[in-house]
Amino acid sequence: MSSHVVPGGAVAPEIHRRWERWRERRDAEFAKPHGWLSLTALHWLDEDPTAYDGLPGLWWADEAGIHHDPTPDTATDRRPDAVLIDGEPVTNAGLVWDRTTDAPAVTLGEQHLELMERGGFLAIRVRDPHAPALAAYTGVPFFDYDPEWRIIGRYRAYPQAEEQVIGSAAARVETSTRVVGEVDLDIDGTTQTLKITGGDGTWLVSFRDATSGNESAGACRWVWLSTEPTDELVVDFNFAANPPCAFSDYGTCPLPPAGNTLTAAVRAGERNPRG
Q1: What gap in Å lies between CA 70 and CA 90, rounded to an integer?
Q2: Which residues lie closer than 8 Å to 211 by C-beta, 6 or more apart?
Q3: Extended strands (E) in the chain
Q4: Do residues 167 and 240 lie in contact, with contact meaning Cβ atoms separated by under 8 Å?
Q5: Which 8-state DSSP code applies to residue 148?
Q6: pLDDT tens sequence across 157-192
Q7: Alpha-carbon 73 to chain mean position
Q8: Distance between CA atoms of residues 117 and 219, nearest Å
Q9: DSSP readout, 109-139?
Q10: Going edge to edge, which strands form the sheet with 94-98?
């Protein structure tokens, strides 16, 4: 299998060009007006109708889905007619999202109210194109490309994929992931093993390392694999991407499977955007 690593610790020019294009795409992705840097709030709902700061009316959730009452709370002088569901104003109390269907488009002026479910919990996440983090954004910080972190590993597929429970950046949310195998990597003369998750055309290496929480994001970083894993697997940590929760306190990103922590300091890929 070709690793595109050339003698002398260099890297093939096409790989470096691909990395530069990836960096440009990543910078553009986080500059979007309703992207991850636009998040300003995450409200977890329960069965009690509640007024949330910055949102009009009352909101609550139950087994059916998310409900909204546009009647203003007289103590907070909330507007009764600000929320639009698929472009139409909400005028009466009722179910605004049946959780068995796709969530509707909900807007409040220029803000997008993202109705979502994570780990069985229902929530509203606010995306504001005028968020301070978006206004201050100048690009995703990164380490320079280091060919030493493009590593050929030895992959072992599991006889059968395993569902494993993992945590998330939101303390209350647990989820599961599909682990399809493991890759052994020789790092600083030591063999270290990472689990590979995914399948159905998408494979991911999610990991922490000795830089996590300092030079790199605390939750984890992700390396997406471009092809299905084979016996000789190239893991290029220069493409290690921050998850959305690295940029915002309102992310619910899944954490790595148990054991996916490297003892080495991986100074490749994206840096901590808040450090």
Answers
A1: 7
A2: 265, 266, 267
A3: 5-6, 10-11, 39-44, 58-61, 65-69, 83-85, 88-89, 94-98, 106-108, 111-118, 121-127, 150-167, 174-187, 190-199, 202-207, 221-225, 232-236
A4: no
A5: G
A6: 999 999 999 989 988 898 899 999 999 999 989 999
A7: 34
A8: 20
A9: TTEEEEEEEETTEEEEEEE-TT-HHHHT---
A10: 58-61, 65-69, 94-98
Q: Which residues pair with 73 in a beta bridge?
A: none
Both structure tokens of 164: 């494993």
User: CA 115 to CA 108: how far, in whole Å?
Assistant: 13
The answer to whether residues 211 and 218 touch, using CB atoms and an 8 Å cutoff, is no
Q: Say which amino acid occupies 144.
A: D
pLDDT bucket at 81, cuts 50 / 70 / 90? low
pTM of the model: 0.89
100 vs 112: CA distance, rounded Å? 21
Q: For the purposes of burial, counting CB atoms within 10 Å of the CB of 119, is it exposed (0-12), middle (13-18) or buried (19 or more)?
A: middle
User: Is residue 271 predicted with pLDDT exceeding 70?
Assistant: yes
Whats the size of the chain, residue-wise?
275
Task: Label residue 206 exposed, middle or buried (CB < 10 Å: 0-12, 13-18, 19+).
Answer: buried
Continuous H helices in the chain: 13-30, 132-135
